[in-house]
Specification:
It is built from 9 helices and 7 strands; from the N terminus they run αααβαβββαβαααβαβ. Helices cover about 35% and strands about 20% of the residues. It has a single domain, classed as 3-Layer(aba) Sandwich (Rossmann fold), CATH 3.40.50.150. By secondary structure, the chain is an alpha/beta fold. The protein has helices at about 10-25, 30-40, 45-55, 75-85, 135-145, 165-170, 175-185, 200-210, 230-245; strands spanning about 60-65, 90, 105-110, 120-125, 145-160, 215-220, 255-260. Strands 3-2-1-4-5-7-6 form a 7-stranded mixed sheet, with helices on both faces.
């Protein structure tokens, strides 16, 4: 069951700001943003970015896990704004695309599982990383080591029971390259194997609790972007989304956006 807190809910103003940073001039934007605005729809990316806009504060130390070449792939202006706001932004990723990241202040080329953050960070973020994790316990141990007591971990990932992740689990990896290129125009170097071992609210809550965290928020975000590369497809998805909302139902495809706080008095698993 999802939990939410006003302290971690992106405001309408924050959503509008990140949308504006991304789109700038709606009149000159492509058909995608105009269709989204017509339906008053904000993507899960928008919600994640608006939450980060709210959480990233002056002078903090921020660790972005699995960032690759971009903090926010579709919103470089927001990445620049927040990178300039913090005292230090460390990007950690074993992949060579990290060297292309122009926003991080420090680059660490290694898996998060072997990183000792020495309780240096106020905030840790994992944007579309959790679905690739094969050893959740090792990742959570490292996150606990990286965060100061009271620090926050933000997890933005896919819901494992959504149609696309279910298809992904039962199709060859080579098909993933093809499907992502056709649907979203992504490059092969931006496609990675998935495991889906920490991709449900219950699983996330259990893992973080075991490693000395409390759940501050966990929300389900309707994701209407499967056919967003096609004008008619995107419109049809949003029409279906609107109809399901009117019936009090969620859209089948969804993402999870969760926030966990490292307990100030906890030393759980830090020496594991």
């Amino acid at each position: 069951m999802a939990t939410s807190s006003p302290d971690f809910e992106p405001t309408a103003a924050a959503l509008e700001r990140v949308f504006g940073l991304k789109v700038k001039d709606l009149a000159k934007a492509g058909w995608g943003p105009r269709i989204a605005r017509r339906f008053d729809y904000y993507t899960p990316d928008d919600h994640y970015e608006a939450l980060m806009l709210r959480l990233v504060s002056d002078g903090m130390a921020w660790l972005d896990v699995g960032c690759g070449r971009a903090i926010f792939p579709s919103n470089p202006d927001l990445a620049r704004l927040l990178a300039n706001r913090v005292r230090v932004l460390v990007g950690i990723d074993p992949d060579e695309t990290l060297e292309e990241n122009e926003f991080v202040h420090e680059r660490v080329r290694m898996p998060i599982e072997t990183f000792d953050g020495q309780q240096r960070f106020d905030l840790v973020s994992l944007r579309m990383v959790a679905e690739h994790v094969t050893d959740p316990d090792a990742v959570l141990t490292s996150l606990a080591r990286a965060l100061k007591p009271g620090g926050l971990a933000v997890i933005y990932t896919v819901n494992r029971l959504s149609p696309v992740p279910l298809i992904t689990r039962f199709t060859p990896f080579a098909f993933h390259h093809f499907a992502k290129r056709v649907l979203w125009g992504t490059q092969p170097k931006d496609t990675f194997p998935t495991a889906f071992r920490m991709n449900s609210p219950r699983r996330l809550r259990t893992l973080f609790h075991q490693h000395g965290f409390s759940e501050a928020s966990c929300v389900r975000l309707d994701d209407c972007r499967t056919l967003s590369g096609f004008r008619l497809g995107f419109t049809m998805e949003l029409l279906a989304w609107r109809g399901l909302r009117a019936a009090g139902l969620g859209y089948p495809e969804a993402c999870l956006l969760s926030v966990y706080r490292r307990k100030a008095s906890s030393r759980a698993r830090l020496s594991a």
